[in-house]
Design a protein that fits this description.
By secondary structure, the protein is mainly α. It has one domain (11-105). The protein is built from five helices and three strands. α1 packs across α2 (39-47).
Length: 111
């Protein structure tokens, strides 16, 4: 009786990725044509963060303007992009803790 080879774990991963591709493609299409996005799509496609992280941001009083349609929260693409731009300008990326402390202690030349 011939032995069956053990299942390939890589094949299972490939199949899982292939099953997600249509969902990602449809979300990307939605982002390109829709004037507003559900919060879940905004988090996953535009920000690449989990919804729970976005919920923490909102709980801290930050976040883009949202509106409701029924029970779903939506963000217009322009409001989302404006909020991202505000974050970029107000919290620039600083590589190390030492550089962060130095940046916080020196006043900006433009002020």
């Amino acid at each position: 009786m011939p032995r069956t080879p053990p299942p390939d774990p890589g094949q299972a991963a490939k199949e899982a990725i292939e099953s997600e591709r249509p969902a990602r493609a449809s979300q990307a299409l939605l982002v390109s044509i829709a004037p507003a996005l559900p919060v879940e799509v905004f988090c996953s496609v535009m920000l690449g963060i989990p919804l729970s992280t976005f919920e923490e941001i909102i709980a801290n009083g930050d976040g883009p303007r949202m509106f409701l349609i029924g029970r779903r929260r939506y963000i217009t693409k322009q409001d989302g992009l404006d909020w991202i731009e505000e974050l970029r300008e107000s919290r620039p990326y600083v590589r190390s803790i030492r550089q962060r402390k130095a940046a916080a202690s020196t006043p900006n030349a433009t002020e």
